[in-house]
Specification:
Blueprint: H1 3-19, H2 26-58, H3 68-111, H4 114-119, H5 122-164, H6 166-213, H7 215-220, H8 224-271, H9 274-279, H10 282-323, E1 343-350, E2 360-367, E3 372-376, H11 383-390, E4 398-403, E5 406-407, H12 413-418, E6 420-423, H13 434-438, H14 447-456, H15 460-464, H16 483-497, E7 501-505, H17 513-527, E8 531-535, H18 539-543, E9 547-552, E10 555-560, H19 562-568, H20 571-578
Parallel strand pairs: 3-8, 3-9, 6-7, 7-8
Antiparallel strand pairs: 1-2, 1-4, 4-5, 9-10
Helix pairs in contact: 2-3, 2-5, 2-10, 3-5, 5-6, 5-10, 6-8, 6-10, 8-10, 14-16, 19-20
Membrane topology: Multi-pass membrane protein
Pfam family, one: ABC_tran
GO molecular function, one term: ATP binding
Amino acid sequence: MTEQARLSRTSLQTYWRLLGYLSGLRGYFALSVFGFLVFSVSQPMLAKLMELVINAIEHKDADARWVLPFVAVGIFAVRGFGMFMGNYFNEYVGASVIRRIKYELFQHLIVLPARYYDQASQGQLLHRLNSGVHQIQTAVTNALKVLVREGFTIIALLSWAFYLNWRLSLTFLALTPLLVLLVSYSTKRLKKVAKKSEGALGDAMQVSKELISNYGVVRGFGAEKYESQRYGKALDRAFKTQLKIRKISSIFTPLSQLIVASAVAIIIFLLLNPIFLMSSTTGELVGYLTTVALLPKSMQQLSGINVTIQRALVGADLVFSILDVEPEKDLGNFEIQRVQGAVRFDGLCFRYPSSTQDVLSQVSFSVNPGEMVALVGRSGSGKTTLASLLYRLYEVDDGSVFVDDVDVNHYKLTNLRKQIALVSQNVSLFEDTVRNNIAYGDAAYTDEQIRGALLSAHAEDFVNALPQGLDTMIGENGLMLSGGQRQRISIARAFLKDAPILILDEATSALDNESESKITQAIEELADSRTTFVIAHRLSTILKADRLIVMDAGQIVEQGRHEDLLAKGGYYANLYNSELVND
């Protein structure tokens, strides 16, 4: 299959897929089409009106003044009605389609697997969400309107022209192959360049996103010039591709107009032939010329939307490339109100999709309900990955994970994750109130429950001191709070969830000694009645654990209590003496 044929097939598939979003909107779309059809039919009426006016002037028909003005008003009233119906319902259909696409995109993003976000550039992803949808929006509003309105207008004018004189009108058909070749070539070129343009704009978006997220690091390292150069290079690439698009468009439009003008010129030449002049009235000749003269404007507008349509197809490809990603697997059907908290890892092996090395290898151990287990090891030993497999953030490559002797793959995802509360070292808060951040995902919690969670997390004092208390907006990712305050809000969220299994991934890393002491005490109280996995380096946390699982290079090298492992003088003792004691 040739490249052009492949692109044509892909474009056709994209067209049909976009048309699928008209489901339930076909009635409104039909009203829009009807409105533009009414408008288009009025175009030949103008040519006929011109013919009647010229004939009236030529025959000195004074009585026509009592009829033709009302005919003119009537024609423009019909045009106005058609234009209103066409535009209004077209905008309604366009806005509805975009709303559906945006909602479907968001719903799909929620269920995409973690591996997709690990591999996707956030800047490119945001650009696809924004630019891709914007290009589609432009097409389904402006381009669709021009396509339907001017398409019907051309059909109506050509039909009227053939009715008046089919021999002269054949000139347009003779030049049609040239227009088809021109459109085909420009379409192929536009789509290729548009894809490169969107990629370059995505790179620029990524640089912008990184600057906003890491502005403190950029300024701290004096890297303003470096970031400016990165952004400038991305913009330069986008600028060059944009120029190519403008160049193709600028060449295509006048060439298509030249072809149409050539047809009009040939018709004028033939129309002035003495045979036609002798056999037609002045009104008939002017009416036919008016019909022909109205065609170039519609053809120009119709040819001008080719760029918009091709960019919309590229935008649709960007959107569909996200929608086509397989969602997170959720094939389990087991549900339980509340698990007891027994956890077992059996021969667990795992590697990330982008890696060739195992992050975990033959990991096996069991945890009893209510037991606190500390996962200890150097950075990169697999502690956080092991904990993430418990709530199925990633699919297990080899081996099994059990909760209450039920394979986690057999649980419904929502039910499994309902049993587990997570507090990570990377605190994630939302641009919302303190109340909604603590009760995240469940609006049914009462203020008493929320305040109880704050009390347990030793966060009630600073929350009460905020301007609006629980209703204080905390900014993007809790920007209005200190690091320790953000961490305690995150911990309060986990307390409120009251899940039987708790994962604390460096949960006290952002707290000062006084705050850590309070949180450690609260965690101890919480851990008395639930299974707790603690990923920590601090000695104070490790000493409270019932058991230590010591990991290195994705494998368990030792396990036991702190005192026993120190007395053993093995890997943990060396790790403790070289690293942990320094904390």
